[in-house]
Please model this.
Amino acid sequence: MNTLPPLLRLALHRRRRMLTAVLVGMVAFEALIVVVTNTIPPEQLFSGGRSPPSAYRAFSGSSGDVSIASYPGLLGAGLTHPFWIALQLTVIGSLAAAAVAADVESGTIELVMVRPVTRSRLLAERAAALLLASAAVTAAATLTVAAGVALSPKIHAQVGLGGVFAAGVMGYAFTLCVTGPALAVSAAVGRRALVLGAVVAIGAVGFAVNFVALAWEPAAPLRYLSPFHYYTPGDALARGAVLWPRVAVLAGAGVAGLLAAQVLLRRRDLTR
Model:
């Protein structure tokens, strides 16, 4: 880690305990999902042979082709579960708030910039720290699921490892979709609470909007506003391939947020 740029290294070092706890929690949770998936046959989840309600697609991470009462659906549920979302948002919210807003709020931004450190470098290194942390959390979930699939012949018969890693790629695209706008808010405001609020709005509220859009036909057009319409790990697990158009939308939103953060940081007064 000593070879990393100083601001990037410091950002990761300050939150090493939080990141360690999140990584352990993610591995434990995904291991539990794999155990449950391997123990309970999907068809037993719903009595009477009835198909799950269409809104349950939101929990399996599918756009409509994959039922939660299937191996891809159950594993996809572990990659769109509120616990998975909460852990990802914890990392993004913490590091995005610390990127700019926390220093402005605490009055330490002038000490950081006096080294001298350009605004572009400040944002670039702290954004890199966030992207690395999100990659580690996503990799922890993906590798845990991959190990479980590889060790379970009956799951592996329906879910290939290629599908697991495809779901991991889509998971990282989702984190990028949240990271970009979160950094833009951090660059524009001087309060950590506003950054955390933006992260919650994109992640938690986005999930709720997608669920309502799937459950209530008049609200169906709203699904296009939610990142969870594009983040569909259940579909990736079933098809065994990355859904590149959806990844492009998620990554595009993230890149747009990062570019906006650069512009906003250059123009703002860092003393308030």
